Structure formats: C-alpha cells, structure tokens
Amino acid sequence: TVGFGDDETLVEFAAEGVTVSVPLTPVGDGLYRLDGVPVFAESAAFGDVIEAEPGEDGRLRFIRVAEPGGWRTFDFLLRAGQLDGEWARTLLAEVAARGGHWERVFGGLLFVCVPPGSDLDPTPWVASV
Q1: pTM score, whole prediction
Q2: Which residues pair with 67 in a beta bridge?
Q3: Who has greater pLDDT, 46 or 57?
Q4: b/e string for 29-43 if b means 16 or more Cβ within 10 A?
Q5: Helices (runs of H) and strands (runs of E) counted in the chain
Q6: 80-to-19, 52, 106 alpha-carbon distances in Å
Q7: What are 69-117's pLDDT values in tens digits?
Q8: Which terminus of the chain has a smaller tally of CB atoms within 10 A, N or C?
Q9: Sign of CA dihedral 93, 113, 16, 21
Q10: At 65, is the secondary structure helix, strand, or coil?
Q11: Angle CA(108)–CA(43)–CA(68) in degrees, nearest 5?
Q12: Rounded to an integer, what distance in angstroms lies between the CA atom of residue 74 and that of residue 84?
C-alpha cells in the first residue's frame, strides 16, 4: 500500500497486489476518472475512467477500465536535484500549456501525461540533461 496525500483515495488493484492513493473524480455510479497517476499499477492509467466498488476502510476496489482516457504517460527516473533546473521549468510549462499533466513522486520520479492527439514527447528534453 502506497499513500501520497490525505486528499487522495486508496484504490486496490487486487490482481496486481497493489493499493495506491490517487486523486479521482466520481463520474457515475461506481465510475471514477483517475486525475493522477496510479503509481505501481499497470491496469489503469491517468485519465482513464475506472469501475470500482467500495472496499475496506473507505478504499475502492478496482474492477476494470470502463473508458480508456487515451493519455500517453512517460516516466523518468532522475538524479537528485535534476528537476530543479531551468530545463525542467521550461518542459513542465510546455506540458501545462499543451493541456498535459505532470507529477513528481519520491523526489526524482517524473510522470508526464500527454493528452490524446498531442504530439508532445518529453523524452528529448530529459535526454538532453
């Protein structure tokens, strides 16, 4: 079980043996849009609408992806302090300007989520540092 924030809901991905906290928005009866990256889970991704049922202690138990969000997620493991440079500020501003989403986890793990139809590829930015 990995929890990141008090305002996030724990979602159990039983088939993967993983329970992670992730921000989400209810969008229907038993349906939730993932508004964050479900770190360590591979069954669902940022932007997906998932079907889930109430579980223990207020957790949700993942059932299936009801509607794929179509977002592409890039993940990078960076050295300490590497995200503090000008290149990172420029990249993250570009991601936001193009309607994307990014998250920094454990200090050096960067997730960049690119909306459907976008041609943004952050890989060259990260490779250049």
Answers
A1: 0.88
A2: 49
A3: 46
A4: eeebbbebbbbebeb
A5: 2, 9
A6: 26, 36, 10
A7: 999 999 999 887 888 888 888 999 999 999 999 998 888 889 999 999 9
A8: N
A9: positive
A10: strand
A11: 100
A12: 19
